[in-house]
Each structure stands twice: as structure tokens, then as C-alpha cells.
Amino acid sequence: MAVSDVAVSAQSEMVRASALVGAPVDDGHGGPVGRVEDLVARLADDGYPPVTGVLARAGEREVFVPVGRMAAMGSGGVMLLPGGAELSEFERRPGEVLLMRDVVGRQLVFIDEHHRGRLVRASDIELALRGGTWVVVGIDAGPRSRWPWRRRSGSARIVDWAHVEPFLSHVPTSRLGLRLRWLVQLHPGDVADLVEEASPDEAEEIIRAVSEDRDFEADVFEELDQEHQLELVGKRSDQQVADLLGKMAPDDAADLLGEIDRARREPILALMPPAGGQRLRNLLSYNPQSAGGMMSPGGICVPSTTSVSDALERIREDRELPETFDSVLVVDEEGRLAAAARLLELLRAEPTAAMGTVAHPDPPRVRTGADLVEVTLIMTDYNLTTLAVVDDDDRVVGVVTIDDVVEQLVPENWRRRAEAED
């Protein structure tokens, strides 16, 4: 919803922050106090931030005019209540920001009603008088914004403040920053896109917010391009990198570790749990462009006597399965691939049926050394989203999922074109 719609329905007075800058401050008796330089708002709480006062220039001094001293405020200026103590020097307080200095001209995170995120730039700020209190209700996102807007004053495009979150790490006195509960509304891929589009300081603020949830942080790192992964990892200790890799999907973790300086790899691996470190060492032994290099270790492998209900329970319990997983593999006593059943088939089968009676024998598979072309053709021919990877003895060592293949197939110039169109 455009903020102008909200404001009109509330029948509230509105003014732009820029219209107040330079406006006179009157002492209430017709005498000049100074001129407005900025507006102070409290952003520490949820909802529409209240204006707590204005920063005014009074001769050589910067003074703070609290809202409690104001009789009126508008585009014509600020009028003070008569009397009262002398205005004090301005001093930033925790939770507060200067709207023109700290927000206007800077980027904010915009999240639409479909929970898709994007960066927008505030060219101005919209204020509304609600219940006797001036509050920040929106931003002018500028003429090039793609987001829902309503034309006002020429090319202005107003976005409701309820859908934006400002970057504030550049205002250390505010003690504020992007909030995790705001970013977790987004898919990790959308957060990664924000990191890649943001400035270095903004990207750090995003990552600092998501690092409060280690699992979500790992999901975001998996979606980042290699350049940003390495830049961010370069700023972390070996222990922090080891913890991060331990939360990432094994194939993505191996890809990232493979790009880290060799001198740093072994110390990082040594800080990981033994099983996790060895798993990454095994993956690093394969060519990154081969099935072994693309695969996720393991998968769901069960004996033929396992019931369908038990196989489904294995799926529920395995938290490391890729989102695109869709097949349960049936193996013999030696771990060799014998059959496979897709998830939809299992959901339709009798829960007590044995996997050996439901699964299809001799399913498609590739060796660890298979190249991208072979993997892609087999998955295309059999309409697979999950393909078993086996060693030379036909024992299952992992699975390649369709997202791993697509990632390898997308040409780099497509990514550059998408960035240019943004």
C-alpha cells in the first residue's frame, strides 16, 4: 500500500522532511530562534518512528528543540511554546537518528507484500501528524524505484515505512542496525542478492544481522557469489569460518573451502568436528566440475526390506537433505545401488510395503568422475531432480541435485546482465 493512501485515510496533516530544512524556528513571541537543520526521530521501536525534535542552527550553535517545546510544526517552520528554559546543545541519544543526515540519500531494505527484498534509496522522507504526534510514515524512493508507488509532486514515489528498514551502522550513537527478524522474512537467496547489491559497509551490516541465526547465516552464504563469500570469509577467524562451514550444505562448504588459500584450509578443517572435516576433505579430492565435486554426500539409502513408513521417517529426521531431494535409494548389503523410488511414489504407496516392492530396479546413476555434460543429459533424459553418484564398485557415495547442475550451467554473462538490468 502506498503511504499516501494510508495518510489520506487517516486524514492527517503531512509534510516532507526536506520542506522543513531551512524553515524558521520562532520563539512563540514572533522572535527568531534559528532555522531547522534536521529532524530527530526515534527508530528504536517498532511501528512508525516518532519525531522527538528538530536540530536547529542558532547562530554558531546547534540546539535541540524537543517536541515538548513545540506549539506547531509544518512546512512554514516551527513555533515554540512561550517561555521555557534555554534550548540545550544538541547531543545524539541512543535509538535516535537525524533523518536528513542519516537516512535521506542512503539505501534501505524494502520488503514487499510477497516477501521479496530489494534496495531502494530515500530521496526524501514523508511525515504525518497522527494523534498530535509527528511520525515518519514513508520515503520517497526516487524516480527509478520499481516498487509499488503513487505519483505525487511530479515523479515522487512514496513507499510505506512499514515496508522498509534502514541501514544504521554508520550512526554508532544510535546503537541500531538491521534487525534479524526483518531479514528472516526473506528467502536466503534474496538476502544474498541484497548483500551483492549493497555497499561493503551495508553488506557487513546485513551479514552481522543474519549471523545472529547460524543456520540462516549458512543458508545465505550458500547463495552468495564466490567473490562475496571470499571477501566476507577473509574478515573472519579460522574458528568462525569452521563454524560457518559446519552449518553449510557439504557440497557448498567444499566449494567455498576449495577457494580459500591452501595455507588456511587445513587449520580450518582441524577446527571442525572430525566427521565433518573428513567429509569436506573427501569432497575436495574430486574435480569441482565432476559429479563427485557437485554432489552432496550420503542421501537416503535403505535396505530393500525397509518399510515405506520407515523410509519416510528417515526423510523427516534428516535435516541435511537438499530442498530439491526427491528420491530414496535402495542398496544391497554391500551398499551397492539396487533400486530407487521417488518421494511421490512413496507417499502414494502403502506404509507397510517393503521398499524392495515399491522401488524401481537398476536406476540411473553416474560415477564420481562423470562430467557436467553426462550428469545433465542423464537428469534430463530421466526427468530427475536427484541423481545417485556411485564409486567404481557401484556403492552410493552421494547425490547430485538439480540446483547444483543449474548453478553450473548458468553462464556468467547472464549474471552480469541481471545485475546491469537492476
N-C termini distance = 23 Å
Q: Unreliable segments (pLDDT under 50, ≥5 consecutive)?
A: 1-11, 144-154
Largest sheet: 7 strands, mixed
What general form does the structure show? elongated
Q: Give the count of helical stretches.
A: 19
How would you portray this structure in words?
With about 425 residues, this protein is an alpha+beta fold. Helix 5 runs antiparallel to helix 6 and helix 10 crosses helix 12 (about 275-285). Strands 2, 3, 4, 5, 6, 7 and 8 form a seven-stranded mixed sheet that branches. Strands 1-11-12-14-13 form a five-stranded antiparallel sheet. Strands 16-23-22-21 form a four-stranded mixed sheet. It has 19 helices and 23 strands. Strand 11 and strand 12 (about 135-140) form a beta hairpin. The protein folds into three domains: about 1-165, no CATH class; about 180-285, MgtE N-terminal domain-like (MgtE N-terminal fold, Alpha Horseshoe); about 295-405, CBS-domain (Roll).
What distinguishing features does this structure have?
CBS-domain, MgtE N-terminal fold, seven-stranded mixed beta sheet, elongated, five-stranded antiparallel beta sheet, 422 residues
Short note summarizing the structure:
The protein has 422 residues and is α+β, with helices and mostly antiparallel strands. A hairpin with a 5-residue loop joins strand 2 (24-26) and strand 3.
Furnish the topology, listing elements before pairings.
Layout: H1 3-10, E1 14-16, H2 17-20, E2 24-26, E3 32-42, E4 51-58, E5 61-66, E6 70-74, E7 77-80, E8 96-98, H3 99-103, E9 107-111, E10 117-121, E11 124-130, E12 133-140, E13 151-152, E14 156-160, E15 164-166, H4 180-183, H5 188-197, H6 200-210, H7 214-223, H8 226-233, H9 238-247, H10 250-259, H11 262-270, H12 274-284, H13 291-294, E16 296-297, E17 301-302, H14 308-317, E18 327-331, E19 337-342, H15 343-348, H16 355-358, E20 360-361, E21 365-367, H17 372-381, E22 386-390, E23 396-401, H18 402-409, H19 412-421
